[in-house]
Structure formats: C-alpha cells, structure tokens
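#onboarding

Welcome to the new folks! Below is a worked example of what a typical request in this channel looks like: someone posts a single protein sequence, and someone else replies with the predicted structure as tokens. Don't worry about understanding the tokens yet, we'll cover that in week two.

Example request:
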Amino acid sequence: MSEDHLDLIREFFRAFNAADAATVSAFYAPTCETDGVFLQPSRDVPVRGRDAVARAVREFLAANAGGLDGQVFVRIRALARLETGRGWVHAEWVGGMRRRDGGEAAPVHHVTGYTHFFVGDDDAILTQRSIVQPAGDDAVADVPVPPPVAPGSRKYPSRPIVGVGAVVILDSKVVLIKRRFEPLAGQWSLPGGTLEVGETLEAGTAREILEETGLVVDVGPVIEVFDRILLDEDRKVRYHFVLIDYLCRPVGGRLQHGSDVADAVLVDPERLEPFGLTPKATSIIRKAVEMLRRDGGFEAKREVL
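Example response:
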C-alpha cells in the first residue's frame, strides 16, 4: 500500500502535466476500467485494461499540448477522500489544452471538472470516472454548498480548520493514542488536535499533547504540512483540516490518556502494523525517526517521571 492515495493521485497529475505517457500509464492496474483520458472522457465506450489506457494516453498527449500557465494540462482545485468507501479519491481540477498541429497560435480549450479514482491496495488505479464541461460554468466542478452549522464546528466547516499533531519519541518508542471521537473514532493515531484562536502552533501542539498523553513536551521541527478533506455521499465537504505535525521530545509529565482519548501507549516504530494506522500517520512517523537519526537524536532536558 502507498503511504497515501492522495499523494499517489498528485503524482499522477504531475506526470500528466509533464506529458510523460509511460509514467501516467504505469499508475493503472492491468485490469483497470476507465472512461478514457480524464480530460476527454467517453460515456459510451469504456476503456478496459492498462494497455488500452496507455494507447489512449499516448494518442492524447501526441495530439495535445498543455494550455494553462506554464504549458500544463491541469491544475488541481481540490483533492479529497470519498466517505463512500476506502480507496476512493475525488479530484476537482481546471484544465487547458491546445492542438499540437495548430502550433503556438492554436486556441486553448479550457475545461473544468472532477474525477473519481478508485485505487487498490497495490497502489494502482482500478477505476476512473470523470465529469467535464467547458470552463466558465462552475456547476460541475464546485463542491456543493454545505448545510449551515454552528460556528467552529468541525463537521461541514465554513473554512478549513488548522490542526496540530506530534510524533513524541520516548525511550526510542513513539506515543500513539486511540481516538475516542470522530474523525477516526476508535482508531489509533498520533496525538494532536485543533488550534485555538490566538494560540501559536507550538503552544497548541504542546497543549494538545499534554491533554491527550499527560506528557510535557518541547516542540521541535516541523515534520510535514498537509491537508485532509473528506466528502460525504453528496460531495459536500464533511471535514477539511490543514495539519502540521511536529517532532517533539518529552521533558516532564507521565504517560496517561486524557479524557478525550481512549488509550495512550508507547510503540516500537518498527512494529506499527498491529495498530492499523493510516498510511499518512505511518509515513509521518518514519520521517520523524529518520530526522532523529540524521540529526543524532536528542536527549530529554530532564527525566520523564
């Protein structure tokens, strides 16, 4: 399994913008079924099998050049998981292309749309379905307006919510917590939560770690910044987080789970599989461990009680 299906689809679009037909084709499973090249889908004749998809991609790229700024084909407007099932990725984009046989003076055809990808556990696209229309009519590409909710609600938010998290290393082990509430209720993950108004990123991280794990930490360098968007069955944005994960070291406190988590444990970073972490969480932990190895590790300022 890849570290993240969203990252895989990002790489797919990068390869397409580079007009790299071989790399684009390699993203598909041998038994895939698509509606053709996502910029020019066909509703009538499905394209089945990687070889057929590869031919369609080669023909499209041979006939067309990118028409957006920088001569690329597509820019992503939104990238999200679909709540309808594991493996589904929803990508909203704007596109532009011009016929190569018309030279630099060829007019650019602008389109807008979205694509649903189903990615299997072997990191290959099994299904691809697109809706495309001429640019200017945003009825298709725009995410439907969410229902009204109370200010500050995490569900169906009016704006993205900033979240902070941490890889806390203690005695060469990483701290994991079991979530009590949604999202990820009942699942193991890294400790963290949402930033409060007027609170710095570092202060919010330290507060969340103390509340969830009982540990007082020094907040170190940023490991990664990324977003997480989850759509419901009607393509409404149920959750939208912008997340910043930090590498942290304990300087006090005692490991114990807080009231908003079900459990907190120390785990060997080489033995994460039984905890069923998301691919992204596993990736973040691996990056943190590599940062420690590269920098020679750290020693706690004072003994953890």
